[in-house]
Amino acid sequence: MNYQPRGISDRAIQGPASYLSELGTAEALLKAQPTWNGVGAEAVARMRLQNRFKTGLDIARYTAALMRSDMAAYDADPTKYTQSLGCWHGFIAQQKLISIKKHFGKTDRRYLYLSGWMIAALRSEFGPLPDQSMHEKTSVPALIEELYTFLRQADSRELNDTFRAIDAARKAGDQAKEKALIEKVDNFQTHVVPVIADIDAGFGNAEATYLLAKKMIEAGACALQIENQVSDEKQCGHQDGKVTVPHEVFLAKIRACRHAFLELGVEDGIIVTRTDSLGAGLTQQIAVSHKPGDLGDQYNSFLDCEEVTAANARNGDVIINRNGKMMRPKRLASNLYQFRAGTGEDRCVLDCITSLQNGADLLWIETEKPHIEQIAKMVDRIREVVPNAKLAYNNSPSFNWTLNFRWQVYDAMKEAGKDVSKYNRADLMKPEYDDTPLGIEADERIRTFQADSAKRAGIFHHLITLPTYHTAALSTDNLAKEYFGEQGMLGYVKNVQRQEIRQGIACAKHQNMAGSDIGDDHKEYFAGEAALKAGGAHNTMNQFG
Questions:
Q1: What reaction gets catalysed by this protein (predicted)?
Q2: Highest mean pLDDT among 14-23, 60-69, 518-527
Q3: Residues annotated as catalytic (active site), given as ranges
Q4: Which residues contact 373 (CB under 8 A, 6 or more apart)?
Q5: CA–CA separation, 165 vs 182, rounded Å?
Q6: 274 touches 228 (CB < 8 A)
């Protein structure tokens, strides 16, 4: 069954030591080391506060406890769902978390998603690849480590700015402001948040899955998402040709991930099991069955079969016994076996229940459209067996959200007997429908989709797999159109730099964002007045205030 909470330890998710206690510890240490001349206690305290997480395992344990706490909160109140955006580079993740803190003041219930699709398309040494597990498996833990390197640097940068403000308050003799700034440090919320990391179908057998899972956890991942496709035939969840494996094969990989978490001491680690059965009509294997009704027999019961007689038997036939009859599963030229049409939902439900009963913590049902009732119908059946079942759901860019929701509204209007004569269902993507009652209603359903489905369909975590892939492409297209056209430099200044300044985007000061101020302060720690610093009066970054 599901993980049974042991009680989330406050110690696991509490903040670092206070400014003054860290300072006192450093002073005591340096007092005992008289030859460490020139090392300042306050510099040591600040550097320690800027480096709260010493290893990826520290991150994994901290974020796992956070995620468990969020899961418990959702079980009590489904309005407390969580969200993430897929990030393909550490800088993207960093800017996302900086923006969240800027706009909302805290990072609560906001995560990161690491997409195998984006690693394949953007981070493989082979160049752009389709989402078929052809990229280097080592690129997955490498990206996790990169994400957290950038998030930890965001911590350092924000704290460093506060330390500089403390020094300025001190210089001005403003003790009240100095005290307030020290309290700000003590209440600092890290940019480090949970990452749900895509391990695809495990990149091989259960041992291969275990080895990769260890590397991902060591890099900081607290949640691993694994799917029930065949590793060497893996496809993107929104493409055709998906091939699933029997439950026992998949369960071995779930156990491999759990063993990896437990070996590394991440006892709260989360496993997200994804089923592609709704869109997968093929299997590579016939499951092993020892008696009628066992798990293997249930898997095989969905196979598309025909009865075999002496007259129609063929060379090389594979035969199974179904209710006392000899049946031949339909085998394709690819040597894959075919499921009966229309069994996808039943297979999904069985996959989900079986996963939760064998160590999974969250489910992921890959659907072909964003339809709340379709998802809820399956979740209702799963919850009859596992009452606290909950999902991570892919709010995928592979869906045409505008068209899907306009179809849903059109169909609902028609069913209710409303006049739909001014709408062409086959052409609802047209801009002319944007401000119509249908278009407005569809947009409102899209706006509330996450909240509505969290409440109705058991979706604990909403993610968008590839958003920053699309935003990078869109913003680059807009800049290229302006800059290389008649607008020239104004195309950059008006639409990028001016907006960064006016909207308070952190990387408008790109030197600061890259760590130049932190480096200057370190130089002063190390060399004192002899330090050659970059942030002097002639630094052009001063133009940005």
A1: D-threo-isocitrate = glyoxylate + succinate
A2: 60-69
A3: 236
A4: 456
A5: 10
A6: yes
Largest CA distance in the chain: 100
- Say if residue 394 carries a ligand binding annotation: yes
Measure the CA–CA gap between 104 and 149, rounded to whole angstroms: 23
Interatomic CA distance for residues 95 and 509, integer angstroms: 13
Q: How far apart are CA 229 and CA 427, in angstroms?
A: 35
- Is 0.85 topped by the overall pTM? yes
Residue 191 corresponds to which tokens in the numbers above?
């940019």
277 is known to lie in a ligand binding site: no
Beta strands in 61-214 (DSSP E): 82-86, 110-114, 195-198
User: pLDDT, tens digit, for every residue of 269-302?
Assistant: 999 999 999 988 999 899 999 999 999 999 999 9
371: annotated binding-site residue? no
Nearest to residue 249, comparing CAs of 319, 213, 299?
299
Choose from 98-107, 238-247, 496-505 the range with maximum mean pLDDT.
98-107
Three-state secondary-structure class, residue 305:
strand
Task: Give which of 369, 437, 372 is closest to 409, Cα–Cα.
Answer: 437
Q: Report the alpha-carbon distance of residue 189 to residue 14 in Å, rounded.
A: 10
Q: How far is CA 173 from CA 164, 167, 183, 513, in A?
A: 14, 10, 17, 29
pLDDT mean over 27-33 = 95
Do 97 and 71 touch, CB atoms closer than 8 A?
A: no
Helix (H, G, I), strand (E, B) or coil at 235: coil
Helix (H) and strand (E) counts for the chain?
Answer: 21, 14
Instruction: Check whether 61 is labelled as a binding-site residue.
Output: no
Q: What are phi and psi of 108, to 5 degrees?
A: -50, 130
| Per-residue model confidence as pLDDT tens digits over 76-108 | 999 999 999 999 999 999 999 999 999 999 999
The 10 Å Cβ neighbour count of residue 243 is 23
Q: Is the pLDDT confidence value at 5 over 50?
A: no
H or E, element range at 223: strand 223-227
